[in-house]
Each structure stands twice: as C-alpha cells, then as structure tokens.
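Predicting holo structure, magnesium ion bound.
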Amino acid sequence: MTDLATSVDVQTSRAMLRHMLVARGVDAEAVRLQNQGRVDLWLSCRGQEAAQVASAMAIGEATTIFPSYREHAVAIVRGIDGVGLVAQWAGKTFCGWNPHRHRFFPYTLVVAAQTLHAVGFAIARRLQSLSEMVVVYLGDGATSEGDVSEAMNLAAVEQVPVLFVVQNNGWAISKPSHEQMRTSIAERARGFGITSWSVPTEDPELAYLHCAGAREHVETTGTPGLIELRTTRTAGHSSSDAHTLYRDEHELAAAAANDPVQLYRDRLLSAGVVDDLWLAEIDRDIEAHSRAMVEAFGR
Ligand SMILES: Cc1ncc(C[n+]2csc(CCOP(=O)(O)OP(=O)(O)O)c2C)c(N)n1
Ligand SMILES: [Mg+2]
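Done. Tokens:
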C-alpha cells in the first residue's frame, strides 16, 4: 500500500466515534432484550466496533456490502436503525432493511456463503458493464470453509474488484484462531494470487487509513484484495455461548481494559475533538434507538 494519507480529518473522527457509540448502544439494548426473552438470539459485535466502523467508513456509501452476521456497526454506518437490525433476531422477518437502498445485503448465517455471493455479484456487474467494487465481510473461522477458497480463487481468476474484509476476532465460536490455520489469513489470500494486508484495529484512525488504502488498490487495479482486521470479540460467540468456560480470565480482562469505544471516546474528548455537549447529543440518539427497540420488541 503506497501513498497512505497520514491522518483523518476532524469530521471523520467525530463520525467514527458517533457510529461506534451508537453501535455499542444498539448492541447493548439488543443484549438486554435477549436477556428478557424478547429477542431469540443475538451475536454481539462488542469489541469489534472500531474494525467495523473504520472499514465501513473507508469503503464509502456507494459500494455494495455482503455482510456475515455480526456486522451491526457496519449496518449502523449504512443508516440501518436498531429496530431494523434486531427484527430478524426477534423472528419478525428474514431481513429488517432494504438491501438495495442501503447497499447492504441480508445477513448470512451459513458461514462463508456470502463470499461466493459477493464474487458472483461482482461478475454479474461486470457482465452488465457496471464494473464496481464489492465488499464482503467474513470471520477468521470462515476462511477455513471451502466456499472461501472457491470465492478467492474465482475472484483472482476472474480479476474482479472484490475486497474481502476479514475480521479476525481470535475465535470461531470456541476454536482459537491460532488453532484454525498454520499460515496467516493474509498469506492464504496470497496463495490465490490476491494482494493482502493484515492490520491492527485498536486505533480506529489507523485502521481507517489502511482500509482506505486497500479500497483504493482494489478500485484502481480492478482486482481483488483481502484485508485482515485484527480485533477482539469481547462477548461470547452468541447469547447462547458461555464463553467464560473456555476463555482465559486474563484475556477477557485485557479486552475490557482495551475497549476500543471507551479508548477512542477518551482520546477525542481529551484532544478537544468532541466535548460533553456533543456526547450528550449522541446519548440522546442512543436513547431514541433504545426506546424504539423496546417499543418494537419489548412487549
Ligand atoms: C456452513 C456452516 N458451518 C458451521 C456453522 C456453525 N457456525 C456458526 S458461526 C461459526 C464460527 C464462525 O467463526 P468466524 O468466521 O471466525 O466468525 P465470528 O463468529 O467469530 O464472527 C460456526 C462454525 C454455520 N453457521 N455454517
Ligand atoms: Mg472469529
């Protein structure tokens, strides 16, 4: 990746923090509703907000995204509200948003299947002479699925502009990522002839710049790319997963101490990029999401 910008502007910083805070608030309300039995299942994105918001914002609004099932913060960036996001998990609908309007396809619970959908979509776009970049989100565990090998190979052979965004949160349910593969995820992509990067996401701004670089590479070359975002899953795999049974207490304590949302909030506050008034407005926004969610599912 060359010619990376070295900083993000203040508006981008504020927007990133706003999306991260709203995603955290919506996620927390969904957890509460699930605890009350109003939502059947929830797969929290807690801890992954920086990776998701930074990548989604770097990708921009025009690109079609194929998500997995945990990209709630990406959905928030795409303008999907808490009610739309949770409706599927409350058994109300197959998809709580308009995939075409938001350019955000329905969640796929069949691990890795969306990678083939994304590559097929990109090929179809080219056949329609509408060549455009397509983005697909997947997890570390998904990269061991045969579908991902097929998708990466097809994308490379067809030379279509698909950006694979892999959130490596360290776990595929209870299987740690270091036990899932002998090579790194980025190396796997290179084996298929796909340019790849592996970046940390503790700093959302750095993650944003790296993702913007990956996006530019895919857009300008018209070829696939893969960016591995190293992140942390703070909660269990799902609301049915007692993750403290298989996770080390020190790992969980470190995750809580390095919470990307709290750290970024503190950083922008002490730098004067945001102030208490600005944060209070975001709190009101979160409350509005929560109220609407309780109204829709809470009784
Ligand atoms: C084809 C398929 N195999 C297995 C499962 C069961 N399953 C659901 S999530 C998951 C782990 C996926 O891990 P990862 O790709 O790292 O994503 P994460 O949940 O960590 O976001 C598995 C094995 C499934 N839903 N679909
Ligand atoms: Mg994972």
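Residues 10-35 form the longest helix (26 residues).
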